[in-house]
Amino acid sequence: MRVRVDQHSCVSSGQCVLNAGDVFDQRDDDGVVELLAPEPGPEHAQQTRNAAAACPAQAIQIEE
Question: What is the CATH number of domain 2-63?
């Protein structure tokens, strides 16, 4: 699994962090998504998929 984020599309909702806090974080100044693990391990796969599905801006792309 490989994850990419589009910081320009991010609306700072925080759903990514709520669903997969080991994979995503938010910048302190504006809340925009930061990718902590571009290739998360299998133990984080489902949470990462959930985060992508919950993103209202569809700013998270996953390649399986």
Answer: 3.30.70.20
